[in-house]
Design a protein that fits this description.
Radius of gyration: 24 Å
Helix content: 40-55%
Structural class: mainly alpha
Shape: elongated
Strand order of the largest sheet: 1-2
Strand content: 5-15%
Largest sheet: 2 strands, antiparallel
Number of strands: 2
Oligomer: single chain
Number of helices: 7
Number of domains: 2
Length: 155
């Protein structure tokens, strides 16, 4: 049993946990027990496990943003999960590198000498050839490819 003043404190916590798991409390009749009913899963939560939802609550950010915030090793260590779990979650949520979501080089454990040339080893090993030029421009601080002086692009 708890103290008299702590009983009221548990209801908001219980409700928040139930909501995070997609459940609501329903009391159908006056003298019947309360029942838990599932809420319809939202599109964004449909593929998320309870562990993913817990990590979202813990860090206060969407799991998609957390999983794509660096290399797989760094993300897994930061979230307190294994690399294989992080990889499975990325596949489950269909998260991939794209033109708007390039790998972060800061703290990358997949360093290779090609990185010094402005190429990203992660994109090379994943064979994402269409993103390599974009990453090279980002690394070299160029917004668009530049032409040498005296050379024009017109015929």
């Amino acid at each position: 049993m708890g103290e008299r003043g702590t009983v009221g404190m548990t209801k908001p916590i219980r409700d928040r946990i139930l909501k995070a798991h997609g459940l609501t409390v329903v009391q159908p009749a006056k003298h019947k027990h309360r029942r838990l009913m599932g809420q319809p899963a939202t599109i964004s939560n449909r593929n998320k496990t309870t562990a993913m939802l817990f990590i979202e609550l813990r860090f206060g950010k969407p799991i998609e943003e957390l999983l794509l915030s660096g290399s797989l090793s760094i993300v897994a260590k930061k979230l307190g999960i294994s690399r294989s779990t992080a990889s499975k979650w990325i596949k489950r949520l269909r998260l991939r590198y794209s033109e708007t979501n390039l790998p972060n080089c800061e703290g990358c454990v997949e360093y290779h000498p090609v990185c010094d040339a402005g190429l990203c080893n992660i994109l090379i090993t994943k064979e994402l050839w269409h993103l390599i030029d974009l990453k090279k421009q980002e690394l070299l601080g160029q917004s668009t490819p530049t032409m040498p002086e005296g050379v024009s692009s017109e015929g």
